[in-house]
């Protein structure tokens, strides 16, 4: 697995994790009605602080890719 693919996958997993975790609880539901992914938590704990910071800051080297002529292809449904 290339570094770019791994980083993109980790960034995507972290984004989904953060989005689910930070959303407000819905009215008339249990305040702890969020799904929690232990695998993502375990992966984030294994990352170095610098790696975690880069993911949170969305510093994945995409500016370097643009200079090299690499385009990012994303699927949308």
From TrEMBL:
Under which name does UniProt file this protein?
A: Uncharacterized protein
Composition skew (Basic and acidic residues), residue ranges: 30-44
The record's region (Disordered) falls at: 23-77
Question: What domain of life is recorded for the organism?
Answer: Bacteria
Where in the sequence does UniProt note compositional bias of the Acidic residues kind? 56-67
**Species per Swiss-Prot/TrEMBL record:** Burkholderia lata (strain ATCC 17760 / DSM 23089 / LMG 22485 / NCIMB 9086 / R18194 / 383)
């Amino acid at each position: 697995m290339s570094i770019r693919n791994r980083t993109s996958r980790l960034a995507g997993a972290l984004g989904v994790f953060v989005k689910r975790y930070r959303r407000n609880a819905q009215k008339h539901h249990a305040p702890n009605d969020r799904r929690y992914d232990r695998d993502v938590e375990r992966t984030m704990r294994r990352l170095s602080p610098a790696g975690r910071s880069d993911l949170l800051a969305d510093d994945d080297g995409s500016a370097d890719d643009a200079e090299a002529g690499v385009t990012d292809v994303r699927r949308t449904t």
